[in-house]
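Record 1 of the preview.
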Amino acid sequence: MVKDSIHDYAKALFATTNGLKGEELKQAVKAFAALLFKHNILNRAPQIMAAYEAYAQKRSGVVTIAITTAREIDTKTTEQIKKIFGDMVEATRSVDASLIGGVVIKTEDTVFDASLKTQLRILKAHLV
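->
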């Protein structure tokens, strides 16, 4: 028997509920919760919902990025970075002082690392 992943359940929920509203949506979610209970994975509902949200955003063309910098950056800089990735971009920002300088940007499947910490590590590897 093949076990379904969290992402499989998220995709199934999206396919089932896409376009539904009101009572129809309520009944579909209720049936989905019953399915999770039947398969004894109701405790994984928060993870499935997170995967559902990510899948729904992806389907609607929204790109999600995580921006990490050594120091806090302003909104204007954030908007300039977001513009590189398209029109519909959601960004989270975080600060990691260990980067020393520069920026690390993570998308769903790619990491763009332009941090000073990484550049120094690469330089050290070449000098040794």
